[in-house]
Design goal:
single chain; 154 residues
Length: 154
Amino acid sequence: MVGRKQIHLKEHLSKNEIEKLLKEYKYYHKIYLRLLFIRMLDKGEELDNVCEFFNISVPTGYNWLNAYNEKGFEGLKPKFAGGRPSKLTSQQFLELKSMIDLKIDAGEKLSRKDVHMLIIEEFGVHYSLKRVGEIIRELGFNYNKAYPFLYKTT
């Protein structure tokens, strides 16, 4: 390897421990792939070949190797970001659910547009109609295709 610094694999886990973790994390795809990656390096394969085998870039391979060398198995776990925070708080979602419940119990038929206007009036928050539909489903309400009005699920 000309021009590249060689990074060697530190032995945080024995071969048996790696095999045990592979069985345990079989259904956690990202961790499983990274464990296989470490196992192949542990067996003496070159990093470039292992990266090609897993169809990942060499810098990604070095990132995985460095994470494993620094933190052991914990370094192989993906670090998911939380995503964008919701415009409504969880308390506001509960309030919205109770408002919809009251209107339905009073015999009102609510469409997605009605809920959209309710959110704007009560909370001053603008969502797309698509997102309002998703929120309605998350709150436990459904639509009937022929009659797009809200009803309670049982």
